[in-house]
Amino acid sequence: MSNLDPHPAPSPCGAAHHTGPVRELQEGREVPLGESTVVRRLLPTLGRRMIGAWCFVDHYGPDDITDAPGMRVPPHPHIGLQTVSWLHEGEVVHRDSVGSSATIRPRQLGLMTSGRAIAHSEESPRPHRHAPVLHGAQLWVALPDQHRHTAPHFEFHEELPRVAGGGGLDATVILGTLDGATSPGTTYSPLVGADLTLAGGTDARLPLEEQFEYAVLTIAGESEVDGVRLTPGSLLYLGQGRAELPVRADHDASVLLLGGLPFEERLLLWWNFIGRTQEEIAQARADWTTGDRFGTVTGYAGPPLAAPPLPSTPLKPRGRVR
């Protein structure tokens, strides 16, 4: 997934640090993505820039793409992060510069580790060959310093572990471990991502790690999380210090649970790069512009994205505490 803003602002990847439970509700802002997709961006925002190592969250759809091209994101670069593709409806074709090609479908995990450098494209199958509805989320995970120069690679997991929480709750573990079930996806810091399906009449409690900070993104339907009523496209930040999370739903609903140990490193997020210094970001931009380092994505019918200009003001990494 790419940030297609032609004038991306640098984002210090940190936020006010809470050591106890909180309830911060925020709505996403609409951002165009590719030729015909509009996403709701929930992270980063001015008030909340990270949840554990999770540093970027887009929610899109459900969109009727019966007579539309659907997702079209040309080849673009990444450093210092992992991308997570997660669908509820539709299909997305992933291609990257290390030769990976996969069609990702609902509840399948497409996990790309950029490491030192990778490029990829994402698109719906060609018109009249794709599903009529596109609905899902794209997320980024920041890589800690000791792993951010690792070799780039892509993982595709068709089967993921599930947790039947009782009371109408069913969870698919996307990354990390939840209630004893561990995803096969590779992680580089303590975190968790899970898709929670809430049947109508759900009244359940989900076990959590008290050291983790958490947030919940509403994907579909209305639910109640820790007493807060949620509608689709909203993000509820929950803080730390919770041993369990009460969830309720009068009708069928679905939410994403994101969490992890607070990420204490000082990071700099600009465009599709996560680095530590302005020099590192500038070098990555220059390498993409000159065709060095990132390799070539084959199979996408169109040119790669051009890198936007760097801002005139200095880029400064910051930590979680403002």
UniProtKB/TrEMBL annotation:
The protein's required cofactors: Fe cation
CDD domains (alphabetical): cupin_pirin_C
Chain positions recorded as Fe cation binding sites: 76, 78, 120, 122
Key words, A-Z: Iron, Metal-binding
Record-linked Pfam families: Pirin, Pirin_C
Domain Pirin C-terminal: 194-293
Domain Pirin N-terminal per the UniProt entry, residue ranges: 41-141
Cofactor note: Binds 1 Fe cation per subunit.
Biased composition (Pro residues): 305-314
Disordered: annotated segments: 300-322
Residues annotated as transmembrane: none
Gene Ontology molecular-function annotations: metal ion binding
Family from the record: Belongs to the pirin family.
Protein name: Pirin family protein
Organism: Streptomyces sedi
